[in-house]
């Protein structure tokens, strides 16, 4: 195992050098998708990590559809909504507190999650997703039908999003048996 993959140095300008810490877990420069509707602090959370989009899949090439009637547009939108709803219902069966995906997450999926009290983050780097998996014991799921109870990460103590300086950072810390950590360096600039 290459430990360099699981230790990240995050440089955050502002504060003093004495404010630097080593966190048992992961720190990511991200905010939840809907800050006013999703929780920013959760204790003993259940985390689901995804490597697939929670949005309607567009064709690899631009897809052409000929709509002969105005009602057909409504049918297409209905199909998209049903697809997203099925994905969200499938995920919500596992009672997550946080859902994180490396891909996109549609506004409709965001609505279903916030309604269920689930916080979501999208477009994470694969390396960050791997570090979260190592920190909290989750398994990154590649396809919707592969999701199972054992994939849910339950090893993290606190999920918290804080504003430091001008940016938001998500902390998944106080993990029970972390195999990843973050060195958070503070100082007058990123160079010091």
TrEMBL record:
Subcellular location field: Cytoplasm
Keywords per UniProt: ATP-binding, Chaperone, Cytoplasm, Nucleotide-binding
Keyword ATP-binding attached: yes
Chief location: cytoplasm
InterPro entries (UniProt xref): Chaperone_TCP-1, Cpn60/GroEL/TCP-1, GroEL-like_apical_dom_sf
GO MF annotation list: ATP binding; ATP-dependent protein folding chaperone
The keyword Transmembrane helix belongs to this UniProt entry's keyword annotation: no
GO cellular component entries: chaperonin-containing T-complex
Protein origin, superkingdom: Eukaryota
Family: Belongs to the TCP-1 chaperonin family.
The protein, known as: T-complex protein 1 subunit gamma
């Amino acid at each position: 195992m290459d430990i360099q993959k699981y230790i990240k140095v995050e440089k955050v300008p502002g504060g003093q050098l004495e404010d630097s810490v080593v966190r048992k877990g992961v720190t990511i420069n991200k905010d939840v998708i809907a800050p006013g509707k999703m929780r920013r602090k959760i204790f003993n959370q259940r985390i689901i990590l995804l490597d697939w989009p929670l949005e309607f899949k567009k064709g690899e090439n631009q897809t052409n559809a000929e709509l002969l009637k105005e009602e057909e547009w409504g049918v297409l939108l209905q199909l998209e909504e049903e697809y997203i709803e099925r994905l969200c219902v499938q995920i919500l069966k596992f009672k997550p507190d946080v859902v994180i995906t490396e891909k996109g997450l549609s506004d409709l999926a965001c609505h279903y999650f916030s309604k269920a009290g689930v916080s979501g983050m999208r477009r994470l780097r694969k390396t960050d997703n791997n570090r979260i998996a190592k920190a909290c014991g989750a398994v990154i799921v590649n396809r919707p039908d592969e999701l199972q109870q054992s994939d849910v990460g339950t090893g993290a103590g606190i999920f918290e999003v804080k504003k430091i300086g001008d940016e938001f950072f998500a902390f998944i810390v106080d993990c029970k048996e972390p195999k990843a950590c973050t060195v958070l360096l503070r100082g007058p600039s990123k160079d010091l």
